[in-house]
Amino acid sequence: MRFTSPLIPARFLERHKRFLALVELADGRQVWVHVPNSGALTGCAPVGGDILITLDRRPGRKTDYTWRFTRLPGGWTCIDTLAPNRLVAEALAAGGLPGLPRPLRVRAEVSVPQGSRLDFVQDTEAGLLFLEVKSITWVEDGVALFPDGVTSRGRRHLEHLAALVGQGHQAWNVFVVQRQDARLMRPAVQVDPAYARELAAAHARGVGILVLQEKIDPPEITLASTLPFDLT
């Protein structure tokens, strides 16, 4: 995928609540930008750090700009949590994800009987396959960690994926690491031990786990490779 709006260099100054940040443009002006990420952005928002934003003037918006990328020692990180879904949608349209059955048809934002919405369901020759996509931006010492905040919604998705497996369907949790300095993915036990337990339990019940790493060359992002995971 490619961001079509020009990328504008800026410096991160501070975050206000979850969805607003104050940044400084190259000409010294300070402007508010939308933060398309509800997580803690652990390690991704150093004060004074270089970021890239886009100009997105649309009726109803509170800000004219959106934060897209942060430059870190290991390279660029995409902080936009909508990007992984777009990448997965492109991959499914192009023939599928590595290690998963080829989709015959794909639907997005599908409601399931358990009461939640999952990102994708695909028809395969073996039946229905449900996918939930999660974005990872937190990496420490080469380990991608999820979540960076307590997520009851994430636990609920895992419960529902496991229930779908129990009904005879296939179900996968897809983690997309939005930076290039990770070599392994682990659940962040220190942040949300309940999520870590639920992830291990869901996997034991048959929920697949696929970890994909992005290649980031702003304004372009691609799914580059798979990463191993460790649930212990």
CATH architecture label name of the largest domain: 3-Layer(aba) Sandwich
| Main sheet summary | 6 strands, mixed
Using only C-alpha atoms, the radius of gyration works out to 18 Å
Strand proportion: 35-45%
Question: Could you give the topology of this structure?
Answer:
Elements: E1 7-16, E2 20-25, E3 30-34, E4 50-55, E5 65-72, E6 75-78, H1 83-93, E7 105-111, E8 117-124, E9 127-136, E10 138-140, E11 143-146, H2 152-166, E12 170-177, E13 184-187, H3 193-204, E14 208-217, E15 220-227
Parallel strand pairs: 3-5, 9-12, 11-13, 12-14
Antiparallel strand pairs: 1-2, 1-4, 2-3, 4-5, 5-6, 7-8, 8-9, 10-11, 14-15
Helix pairs in contact: 2-3
Describe this protein with a few key phrases.
232 residues, Trna Endonuclease, Chain: A, domain 1, six-stranded mixed β-sheet, five-stranded mixed barrel, 44% strand
Describe this structure in words.
- The chain is α+β, with helices and mostly antiparallel strands.
- It folds into two domains: 7-78, OB fold (Dihydrolipoamide Acetyltransferase, E2P) (Beta Barrel), CATH 2.40.50; 83-227, 3-Layer(aba) Sandwich (Trna Endonuclease, Chain: A, domain 1).
- Helix content is 16%, strand content 44%.
- The protein has three helices and 15 strands.
- The strands form three sheets. The protein has a six-stranded mixed beta sheet with strand order 7-8-9-12-14-15.
- A hairpin with a 5-residue loop joins β7 (105-111) and β8 (117-124).
- The radius of gyration is 18 Å and the shape is globular.
- It starts with 6 loop residues before the first strand and ends in a 5-residue tail after the last strand.
